């Protein structure tokens, strides 16, 4: 008897998902001061899975255990362009036409699920405890929050990035 289960890469290849970026630009992901190496790895893996153009990590105060980060990223480490950068490098490495979107709780944040997201965008996430630094938040063109009705009211940084980036992909697929 044939199994109902098939490997995800077989399903997605059959669906033609790799052609999706013939219709719109790939996003970028920027993470500000991530401290946990597993989160760095999870963000690299997310960027790879969403088909991002690249992932940039703004350097934090402490060096990370990159062995743990690469283990969490798995094969994605070699599939996508990613690197650590200084904040002042962002303007020169990110396309000027792309809209900078913070996934953050601020007084100006809009509910992600009621926000029309642009075709060309850079998603920013922040440090696990302090969020995105003010000097970056001031440069954002959009700021969105993810409604979290449960009592903890906080998402892991890689989970928040995944929710926002896949919401963006959902919107792009419906255009």
Reconstruct the topology from this structure.
Blueprint: H1 8-15, E1 28-32, H2 37-50, E2 54-58, H3 66-73, E3 82-85, H4 90-93, E4 99-103, E5 110-111, E6 121-125, H5 134-137, E7 142-145, H6 157-173
Parallel strand pairs: 1-2, 1-6, 2-3, 4-6, 4-7, 5-7
Helix pairs in contact: 2-3, 2-6
Key attributes of the depicted protein:
31% helix, 175 residues, alpha/beta, globular
Describe, in plain words, how this protein is organized in 3D:
This protein has 175 residues and is an alpha/beta fold. The chain has a single domain, classed as Alpha/beta knot. The chain is 31% helix and 17% strand. The longest helix has 17 residues, at 157-173. It is globular and about 55 Å long. The mean pLDDT is 94.
Question: How far is the first residue's CA from the last residue's CA?
Answer: 40 Å
The count of β-strands is 7
**Can you write the helix and strand succession as a string?**
HEHEHEHEEEHEH
Helix share, percent:
25-40%
Low-confidence stretches: none
Largest sheet: 7 strands, parallel
What is the overall shape? globular
Question: TL;DR?
Answer:
This protein is α/β, with parallel strands linked by helices. It has 6 helices and 7 strands, in the order H-E-H-E-H-E-H-E-E-E-H-E-H.
């Amino acid at each position: 008897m044939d199994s109902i289960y098939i490997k995800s890469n077989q399903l997605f290849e059959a669906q033609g998902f790799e052609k999706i970026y013939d219709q719109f630009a790939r996003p970028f992901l920027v993470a500000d001061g991530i401290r946990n190496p597993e989160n760095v790895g999870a963000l690299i893996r997310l960027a790879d899975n969403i088909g991002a153009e690249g992932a940039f990590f703004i350097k934090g105060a402490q060096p990370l255990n990159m062995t743990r980060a690469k283990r969490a990223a798995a094969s994605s480490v070699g599939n996508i362009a990613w690197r650590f950068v200084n904040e002042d490098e962002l303007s020169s490495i990110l396309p000027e036409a792309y809209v900078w979107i913070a996934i953050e709780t601020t007084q100006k944040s809009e509910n992600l699920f009621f926000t029309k997201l642009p075709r060309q965008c850079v998603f920013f996430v922040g440090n696990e405890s302090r969020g995105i630094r003010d000097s970056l938040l001031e440069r954002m063109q959009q700021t969105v929050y993810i409604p979290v009705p449960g009592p903890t009211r906080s998402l892991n940084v890689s989970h928040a990035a995944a929710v926002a980036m896949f919401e963006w992909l959902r919107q792009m697929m419906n255009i």
